[in-house]
Amino acid sequence: MILSVARTHLARLRRDSAGFVLSFVVPIVFFSIFTVVFGGGGRSGSSMVVRLAVVDQDQSEMSRRYAEALGKHRNLSILPAPDASQGGALAATEQAIRKGALPAAIVFPQGFGAQTLAGGDSAPSPSVVLLVDSASNPFAAPVLSRVLEQIAVAQRLQPEPAAVATAQVEEKLLKIETRDLLGAGKENPWIALSAAGLGVMFLFFTTSTAGGAIIDEADNGTLERILCTRVGMTRLLMGKMVYLSGLATVQLSVMFIWGALFFGLPLRGHVTGFLVMTVVTSLAASAFGLVLAAACRTRTQLTAISNLAVLVMSALGGSLYPRFLMPEFIQKLGLLTLNAWALDGFVKVFWRDESVLMLWPQVLVLTCAAAMLLFVARRLATRWEAF
Q: Residue 40 pLDDT > 90, yes or no?
């Protein structure tokens, strides 16, 4: 009898597509994603790779040796320095970091070589300047400080860049000034980024679940009666999208207002940008929910597919884990998700304090995605018009 009961439940599991997906497919997918993120992201097996530019204002032999050592370090990826044709190299670099085009930079100021030879700790001004954006990578400053100290020790022991990887830091040989160009003057800025990440993810869960109402209408015969009227499938889907996008807008607004009231979320002063990103994100999420509903035959199937799709998009798009900590190819792959574009827009609004006009790439992508997804949902919904 015991084995008979077990066989009965096994047969039910085979017929339960949602249970099968949640039990076997979802764990394997997430195991694969996070193994790639944490296990294969960096060079030589290291997943923590800091991307930065090097600005050498000193142009001395010592600064060139430091720059060469930085370029050979396994945890660093050196990017081209910004074009300084419109101003000084330092100003151009700071502007690039503020705009998000560059995550971090190391600046060797004039006199660095002479200060280093004379003893960096006794110099009247900082030997090295770190320019960072803690939203792009909060670990950049400590990692770069550690690497610079390793280079300083290696240069004292032997002037060969190959010694950097094995150098042990026993004393502070450099004076390092860290400038967080965006986060220094903000109060609790990470609340907005957290609210955006979780809020966008739950938008997709909400619209996917609510969009499944059309499946219920098809099952109970309501959809057939609706289509017999002058409404038509196109108008029906448009009406459902208006409802879903309104529901999603209210949901995200409630989350941000709650954060502003109780957790110091800086909503005041960012209302216009917030509303713009909320509306276009809600439209894209609503169209996504309609596509899933139109593609699925049953509620059970919708639950399984929507959970898998939303969780995968959230993992790759940055809702569950910051994209700046992912390998570069995973970051690019994440741009195929709606989450990544929505979060990039909210980062521009709440972190970079950019104007609404600067949101045009995110607004364009999300709006076009909403239109394309609605078109796909309309094509998939033709199966119901055969009633």
A: no
Contact 331, 33 (CB under 8 A): no
Q: What is the pLDDT of residue 123?
A: 46
Answer left, alpha or beta for residue 339, where phi above 0 means left and psi between -120 and 50 means alpha.
Answer: alpha
Structure tokens at 85: 């044709």
Domains and CATH numbers, the chain: 46-180 (3.40.1710.10), 188-386 (no CATH)
Tens digits of per-residue pLDDT, 324-375? Answer: 777 778 888 889 999 999 999 998 898 888 889 999 999 999 999 999 999 9
- CB-CB neighbours of 7 under 10 Å: 10
Contact 285, 204 (CB under 8 A): yes
- Indicate the burial class of 194 (C-beta count within 10 angstroms; 0-12, 13-18, 19 or more): middle
Among 229-233, 305-309, 367-371, the range scoring the smallest mean pLDDT is 229-233
Confidence category of residue 120, pLDDT binned at 50, 70, 90 = very low
Give the position of tokens 């015969």: 221
pLDDT in tens, 173-226: 778 888 888 766 666 656 777 888 888 999 999 999 888 888 888 888 888 888
Report the 3 state secondary structure along the chain. CHHHHHHHHHHHHHHCHHHHHHHHHHHHHHHHHHHHHHHCCCHHHCCCCEEEEEEECCCCHHHHHHHHHHHHCCCEEEECCCCCCCCCHHHHHHHHHHCCCCCEEEEECCCHHHHHHHCHHHCCCCCEEEEECCCCCCCHHHHHHHHHHHHHHHHHHCCCHHHHHHCCCCCCCCCEEEEECCCCCCCCCHHHHHHHHHHHHHHHHHHHHHHCHHHHHHHHCHHHHHHCCCCHHHHHHHHHHHHHHHHHHHHHHHHHHHHHHHCCCCCCCCHHHHHHHHHHHHHHHHHHHHHHHHHCCCHHHHHHHHHHHHHHHHHHHCCCCCHHHCCHHHHHHHCCCHHHHHHHHHHHHHCCCCCHHHHHHHHHHHHHHHHHHHHHHHHHHHHHHHC
**Is the pLDDT at 116 greater than 80, yes or no?**
no
